[in-house]
Amino acid sequence: MDTALDQARTAFLSGIEHFGQRRYVQAEAAFEAALKLVPGRPSVLQNLGMTKVHLGQYEAAMPLLRAALAADDSLRDAWDALGSAEMATEQWTAAAFSHRRALELGPESAVLRLRLASCLAQAGALAEAIAAYRQALATDPGLIDGWSELGHALREQRQLDEAATCYRKAIALGADAEEHRYFLAALQSGTEGAAVPDAPRDYVKSLFDRYADDFDHHLIDKLGYRGHQMLIERLPAECPPRFARVLDLGCGTGLCGALVRDRADHLTGIDLSGGMVEKARARGIYDHLVEADLVDYLHLDQTPSDLVLLADVLIYVGHLERLFERLGERIAAGGWLAFSVEENRNGQDLQLLPSLRYAHSESYLRRLAAAHGLEWFANHALTLRFDQNQPIAGLCVFLRKS
Predict the structure, then answer these.
(1) Could you read off the pLDDT of 119-148 as tens digits, one per residue?
(2) Domains in the chain and their CATH numbers?
(3) Neighbours of 311 (CB within 10 A)
């Protein structure tokens, strides 16, 4: 009769075979069977943890991998897998430690070094991240994501010429050309005659889908954002106490909608990001939510609104002609438009800044309002947020449909 150890070995070897063939569900079952027979065995813990990482079961994987490493901290693959799970759960500092340990234990790996750099960048250790990106790219110059991410880190450090070189190398290697030309344009902020592209729709959607889970905490607690609050608090006294229909364009997670809910008979939220729409839906404050591009939505749905809100939205839009044209058609007679912008004071209508946000001039906004039947009623200067501990100047603007 086979002993428990023999049965565990058979199950373990079966798991190894399934894992090698990427049959991760079967591998998981085999490793779990082995672990029941030999609890605490580091090799089984490691392989079961690695399998769960491949299955996307990150929370379940981490205690298994940590238990394996507690018994034997020389298991390079366990450190690698643990770092991947910690990255997936946005534990950036822990993930950087795990990837560094994996690199210390084995041969140099450009992919692993790139992951370490990404974690350091996310943790805010940009100088260390840049050094790690450079090392990864020295090992493998063909890493497209490496060039792109290094460009981002250099851009944040205001090393704009080097960042531009990185973006061009990424394009040459096959990176999304439209997206990277947008990044390049942001590095030319304020340059006379420089073209100002609109933000690629897919880039903005992906950015906010990734950002959705941490959006409120990051924007309010880390960046000190108050634009949504100021927009509602400073609605002119001439506004009615209640609005029949309120349209929250670029509603995000519903920060602004929550503040205006008690003044709206009907509240609709629109956002390009499905992740943001789901967060807004969880608040339970909207009568209607739509995942859509703002201009597309305004073109398709002609229902007049009595108040339209754009809180911290136009900084990702760029050129505003089409949007204002639709707003002029969509706002009911006597209705209101309230929005915030980063203010551009360099004489240009708009700039795409190195932050990848747009800044608009007051004169540009006034021209657009006048062209589309919107009376400039009031504006207030404010600090929208802080970026690298520097206040970002902005405007809250209130227009009324004539």
Answers:
(1) 999 999 999 999 999 999 999 999 999 999
(2) 4-187 (1.25.40.10), 206-401 (3.40.50.150)
(3) 27
